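Quick one, tokens below. Sequence please?
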């Protein structure tokens, strides 16, 4: 491969095709990880891309292949994730370049300090003849293991909303205030939290988490007057997600009214669901079957570089099983046999993809 580092710090290796058509397939994942994420988050997908090129033993295809190790996917340093993959779709703007880290170093300065030049960022963009992106990533979840399947094809990456709900009552003495005269914000919140979980159990694929609860005044002998909750909700259909949020807000309003509480609601974060390209999902499934691996479709509960690339080019994401349910742990394990299957399926993917190439052009997709 001809290797280079682009202006966003992405490590790139180009494996040329049998001719210089310019048609290009990207394969990659990220090189950074959050603290204690374990040894396989991201980097396994990069190593797999390189292993695939090695397994080709010099065989060429009617397209070129670029293996990418994305920089700064997790957003630890500048608070914005996917910096590496954003560079490929033109989503590092001036404002983002001026964003500062905890030591007051801007992204632009960090790029310069690394010996790169932010003004070269346009060179990092996907070429017009790039027709697909393939990412391998550890599942970091228990689903594949529970299904006894080594690999899974991701159909969609969930949409995600985070919002704050506040119940406001009145602080009063827990010894002198009879039950019927209380305006207990915490009891109201508890009633509503139960409804949030019930909702998740009744909507297929819905994930709800009341992740933080702050109680005021939080003192012994005092009936709580204020409860603020941070709620995280995810689903692969934006319509279902928004419908559920609206229903839960209505229920919160009802609880507040019944208990003579005030109620407040702020939406803090909204990420739309991203559907992986159906044509590529089909080819990835076929590649899995051809390598002797039972195919299984699943939904990713959090974001990946493939989600960013999918804005510009058809993208596919294949999960590799994580063992023992350790999804965020330095002791995370994977099986070498699963990795071998990933390489075998990757080789089938490379053989099958020309059929897809002929049917899809990037300009039609955009
Ligand atoms: Zn990752």
């Amino acid at each position: 491969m001809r290797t280079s580092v682009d202006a966003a710090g992405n490590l790139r290796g180009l494996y040329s095709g049998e001719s210089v058509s310019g048609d290009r397939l990207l394969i990659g994942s990220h090189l950074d990880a959050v603290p204690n994420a374990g040894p396989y988050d991201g980097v396994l997908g990069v190593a797999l891309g390189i292993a695939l090129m090695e397994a080709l033993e010099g065989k060429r295809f009617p397209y070129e292949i670029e293996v990418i190790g994305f920089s700064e996917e997790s957003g630890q340093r500048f608070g914005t994730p996917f910096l590496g993959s954003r560079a490929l779709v033109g989503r590092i703007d001036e404002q983002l370049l001026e964003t500062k880290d905890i030591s007051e170093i801007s992204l632009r300065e960090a790029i310069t300090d690394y010996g790169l030049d932010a003004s070269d960022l346009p060179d990092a963009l996907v070429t017009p003849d790039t027709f697909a992106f393939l990412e391998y990533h550890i599942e970091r979840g228990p689903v594949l293991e529970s299904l006894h399947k080594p690999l899974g094809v991701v159909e969609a990456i969930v949409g995600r909303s985070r919002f704050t709900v506040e119940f406001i009552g009145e602080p009063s003495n827990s010894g002198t205030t009879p039950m019927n005269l209380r305006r207990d914000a915490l009891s109201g919140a508890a009633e509503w939290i139960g409804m949030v979980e019930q909702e998740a159990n009744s909507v297929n694929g819905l994930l709800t988490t009341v992740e933080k609860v702050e109680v005021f005044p939080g003192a012994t002998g005092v009936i709580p007057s204020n409860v603020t909750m941070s709620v995280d909700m995810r689903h692969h259909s934006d319509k279902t997600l928004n419908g559920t949020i609206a229903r839960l807000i209505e229920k919160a309003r009802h609880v507040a009214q019944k208990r003579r509480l005030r109620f407040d609601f702020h939406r803090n974060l909204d990420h739309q669901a991203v559907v992986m390209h159906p044509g590529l999902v089909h080819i990835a499934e076929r590649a899995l079957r051809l390598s002797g691996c039972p195919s299984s479709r699943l939904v990713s509960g959090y974001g990946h570089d493939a989600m960013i690339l999918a804005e510009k080019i058809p993208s596919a994401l294949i999960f590799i099983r994580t063992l023992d349910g350790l999804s965020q742990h330095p002791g995370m394990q994977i099986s070498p046999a699963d990795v071998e299957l990933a390489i075998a399926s990757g080789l089938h993917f490379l053989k099958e993809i020309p059929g897809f190439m002929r049917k899809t052009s990037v300009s039609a997709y955009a």
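The chain has two domains: 2-158+273-365, 159-271. The pocket of zinc ion is lined by residues 30, 41-42, 137 (CB under 6 Å).
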